[in-house]
Automatic annotation (TrEMBL):
<dbReference type="Pfam" id="PF00156">
    <property type="entry name" value="Pribosyltran"/>
</dbReference>
<dbReference type="GO" id="GO:0016208">
    <property type="term" value="F:AMP binding"/>
</dbReference>
<keyword id="KW-0963">Cytoplasm</keyword>
<dbReference type="InterPro" id="IPR029057">
    <property type="entry name" value="PRTase-like"/>
</dbReference>
<comment type="function">
    <text>Catalyzes a salvage reaction resulting in the formation of AMP, that is energically less costly than de novo synthesis.</text>
</comment>
<dbReference type="GO" id="GO:0002055">
    <property type="term" value="F:adenine binding"/>
</dbReference>
<comment type="similarity">
    <text>Belongs to the purine/pyrimidine phosphoribosyltransferase family.</text>
</comment>
<keyword id="KW-0328">Glycosyltransferase</keyword>
<comment type="subunit">
    <text>Homodimer.</text>
</comment>
<protein>
    <recommendedName>
        <fullName>Adenine phosphoribosyltransferase</fullName>
        <ecNumber>2.4.2.7</ecNumber>
    </recommendedName>
</protein>
<keyword id="KW-0808">Transferase</keyword>
<dbReference type="GO" id="GO:0005737">
    <property type="term" value="C:cytoplasm"/>
</dbReference>
<feature type="domain" description="Phosphoribosyltransferase">
    <location>
        <begin position="26"/>
        <end position="163"/>
    </location>
</feature>
<dbReference type="GO" id="GO:0006168">
    <property type="term" value="P:adenine salvage"/>
</dbReference>
<dbReference type="GO" id="GO:0003999">
    <property type="term" value="F:adenine phosphoribosyltransferase activity"/>
</dbReference>
<dbReference type="GO" id="GO:0006166">
    <property type="term" value="P:purine ribonucleoside salvage"/>
</dbReference>
<dbReference type="InterPro" id="IPR000836">
    <property type="entry name" value="PRTase_dom"/>
</dbReference>
């Protein structure tokens, strides 16, 4: 299945000069979503993963679908102020501004192996912040699963010490 034909492009979103690649059409297409999960299931062995983490917000459905396939749990890494209870936060730069992500303090157990899921890898700031949050809680990053990777932005360099899998590269 050619996922590139399903992904929709929006020029100048969220600001001028950005070409936004939207995976929403994959999420509403059961065959495409199943294909995505099947492809990642070939790349991450069930014995190497304890839990999946989704990065807000497009990483949530991917992490949830993966968790169901693997019969594992799913946790959320969210924008600041969106999670109840005690949290750990990390601020970082993204391709069009600054952001702060949080995770609940009780989301990850010590040495728990976490695959972090998101729709897209751009400059790598969000992914790196997510990994740092997991590790701050004592978890181990078992890898990253991205549907799309924007290779020109070289975000992979910020997380190259981890296993990184992407299905579509631009």
């Amino acid at each position: 299945m050619n996922l590139q034909n399903i992904i929709t492009e929006y020029p100048n979103f969220p600001k001028k000069g950005i070409l936004f690649r939207d995976i929403s059409p994959i999420l509403k297409n059961p065959a495409a979503l199943s294909h995505v999960v099947d492809e990642f299931a070939k790349k991450f062995h069930t014995n190497d993963v304890d839990i999946f983490a989704g990065i807000e917000s497009r990483g949530f459905p991917l992490a949830c679908a993966m968790a169901l396939r693997y019969n594992k749990g799913m946790i959320m890494i969210r924008k600041q102020g969106k999670l109840p209870g005690s949290t750990v936060k990390r601020s970082y730069n993204i391709e069009y501004g600054k952001a702060t992500m949080e995770i609940q303090r009780n989301a990850v157990n010590k040495d728990q192996r976490v695959v972090i899921c998101d729709d897209l890898l751009a400059t790598g700031g969000t992914a790196k912040a997510a990994a740092e949050l997991i590790e701050k809680l004592g978890g181990q990053v078992a890898g990253f699963a991205f549907i799309v990777e924007l290779t020109d932005l070289q975000g992979i360099k910020k997380i190259e010490k981890y296993k990184c899998e992407s299905l579509v590269r631009y």
